[in-house]
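In practice, a research group might receive sequence data for several interacting partners and want a quick structural hypothesis before committing to experiments. The following worked case mirrors that situation: the sequences arrive first, and a predicted assembly follows.
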Amino acid sequence: MSIITARRISQIFFVLLFVWFCVVASLGERWWQLRGWPVNWLLQLDPFHALGIWLATHTLYKGMLWGVLTLALTFVLGRFFCGWICPFGALQQFMGVLGKHGLKPAQRIARNRPHAGQRVKYWLFLFLLAMAAADLIHFLCSSASHTPLLFWGGLAAAVVGFVVLHVSQWINVRRDVALAAVALLAGGLLLEWMAPQGRWLAASLQTGLLDPIALMHRSVNLVVVPLVDAPLKITSALPRTYPGSFLIGALFLLFLLLSLRMPRFYCRFVCPLGALLGLCSRWSLWRIGQAGDACTHCLRCERDCEGACAPAETIRISECVLCLNCLDRCGHDVMGYHLAPSAAGESDSPDLSRRQVVVSLAAGLMAVPVLRLDGAAGADWNPSVIRPPGALSEEAFLARCIKCGQCMRVCPTNVIHPAGLQSGLEGLWTPMLNFRVGSSGCQHNCVACSFVCSTAALRPISVDERMGRGEFAASGPLRIGMAFVDRGRCLPWAMDTPCIVCQENCPVSPKAIFTRDEFRPVRDGLHLVRAVEGYTLVLQRTALRQDQYATGDYFCRYADGRPRPIVANGDDSLTLGPLPVWSRLPGPGQPIELLIRLQRPYVDPTRCIGCGVCEHECPVQGLRAIRVTAENESRNPYHRLVLA
Amino acid sequence: MPGETPHIAQPSRRAFLRRLTCSLMGALGTGALGLAFWDRRGPLPTVGAQAADPLPDFRLPEKAGQLSIGHGADRGQTLAAAVHALGGMEAFIRPGDRVLLKVNAAFATPPMLGATTHPDLVTHMIRLCLQAGAARVDVTDNPINDPASCFELSGIGPAARRAGARVVLPTEDRFESYSLAGGRLITRWPVLTQPLREADKLIGLAPVKDHHRSGASLTMKNWYGLLGGRRNIFHQQIHAIITELAMLARPTLVILDGTTSMMTNGPTGGSLNDLKETHTMIVGTDPVAVDSIGAGLLGRSVEDLPYLRMAAEAGLGTVEYRSLDPVESG
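A structural hypothesis for the assembly, expressed as tokens:
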């Protein structure tokens, strides 16, 4: 079996595995549903997310440890992840193969030549990492005062180690890198000492915007699956809708189409994960390169070079994605994957100038504090941004959410969708709830979204904690918002029409929506009696519709007697029920009044959990007459609405 | 050439070893860092910082239950007379004490509208403290309107500085997450504790004001200005929070300035028509008793202010102020 076949099998395997994870991410107990399938494994294997999370939270949560394995292997083997595992890379490679039909070899070679734009992905990588870095910098610098022994001891050991290794020429530490590290550390310590509560160091995890695995999950789960599965109904019995998914789908399509013109367009120019792996692969033990001097520059190797790394000349090792096409295509047995560097020479670091590095890093470090001045994560928070249950408070949430869309995919009621700019720029494609779409509100006994979140932006909660049972009885149920009745739109409040669907659907017991009865006069409901015949009142000069008042909600009142239900009516008569008994009956010419009995809904703020079922069920379909906003959400004590 | 075995150049040993070192350092370093920072539990629900040390009790046991009531239009004179009747400021301030004056600077309104502690009262209080030998006098509050504007427009800031005191603004670093022992509402709540922890004596200075929610704003309600955060939520249980505030702050002395009382439209007022010259200055060490007298200035009874009974039942003072033999200081 040729090595290319092995690579293709690997790529196909991971693409199929990805598709399988997309299919099974549905709540349920069948073998093709969620159960225990590790649907986040590919996200966890992604070291870019692991690095981002580590910088933004100074922890590495649970399954994100897998990324360490990928990175460690990259140090040894090179960018095998790009060429053999990444499903987005495989998809683009496939598009590139489609796009090469009809092209002459010279044209194929031309589109695989190294391009100056390949350095853009390194800028993006540095920028995104710098946005997340502030928390780790703060953590390390504050540990100088909290755990001084560990900090200064560790620092001394690291410095001594690097100096020894450099002097004995085992490694070569560049002077500018060393100076930059010292400057960063000194600056961080100074800031810590001067202003420990300063706003200079703020971290935001925006790696999910451009990471290929997150992009793939988002695009396929929120755009492709709903389209493909609508007739098949495997993943969902009801068609799924995701307001805000247009941009996601458009970008996905754009990058795939660009790969028709230039193979692996995203990998070469945009992918920050590729940039990370490229930087780490410069010391890999095995590398692609020429052996000996038998190369004839036929450039057959570059016809299908996926990484645009110029294997025929000075190979750019950090761009090589180990597609191994050059090994396969070379007719002179020159290309190989071996311990020695390429005989034709290699450039092992990307083509970045120091200025570009500094600008990218500085821009990232400054971007977040400036963004936070908007207040979207603070005082000017958007109350229509309802986060899923288990979400951390906003700044902690933004330090963890990788915008993978898994929570949106798994939500059984389809109420979670990707935000646009409602929660600010940082919140793009983060999950927010929209109770107008989907099949129901946020189910009271469901914790699927927090279960599936791979980074604990939605921290893992149990059903007991969600519902406030067992050991959580004292703290009560988790709340994601509060329902507010819009009395100007509500049918019983504004339109004299009975309803209370909201109250019926409220899932907590006692209900968070309760009603107070009120009798209201019906429009044109004053009538004069002509005669009384048993339980029937015959009216003067009326033209009523047959049984228009016989729905069970209408009552008749005479003088100061209690209202009696109307059980039937003709065009000029009303038939009343036997009770309550009237002490006096109306005589001819006396007025009676028609009333409608309305149950008017009120929200009990001490019980409402903000689940949104009421909003979903409200028959006022446009702007709902009961709406949930994020006040009183459990995740932020500053948004608390009521005591007790 | 076809048929020839390609000659693989031997890597220079040094270069290869260097690469090997970096590669292994990278791989192992990544693994080590990953494991060192590995977090299997994930973030826990925000519990909040651990409880801070209790605030000091600023009361002087030998001065318990002392009350004096002064009458007159000149705040300096009535204050001096009332304090003199209790033994003078020297009975409360020892030389070298750091004194904290908790004023009402809640609103950015001029002193004549009576919504804030009058700057004349602040001036004379500072002078009395300094004359008694205080090392330092601080003036603080966490206002409702913008803090800097409030201290300036109310005249308290300029008066304090002219008299030789320091204005302590409610900056974020001066609050800590505090839980009141025996409290139900003040649990892990931001409280302006730093100025109190840096003081030896605490004196409250409050105007007499109508308050539509609580019935009256007197010396006990004045401690609301120690709360931070979204404290408006406590209005839902206003009498309970006032009682807890009186547990939180145990002052050396309280001054209830009824020279001009705000009879309606409190606590902001806004018109001279809201005010009445009641010409009374009440000084005492029992805030419940002081407030009980103050209620009368507004034409209210103790029953109209549920927090008075609640505080008395909590052992914070007595509503039977006559039992304390208040001294009329003219």
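Before designing any experiment, note the following. The first strand of chain B starts at residue 38 and ends at 39. DSSP finds nine helices and twelve strands in chain B.
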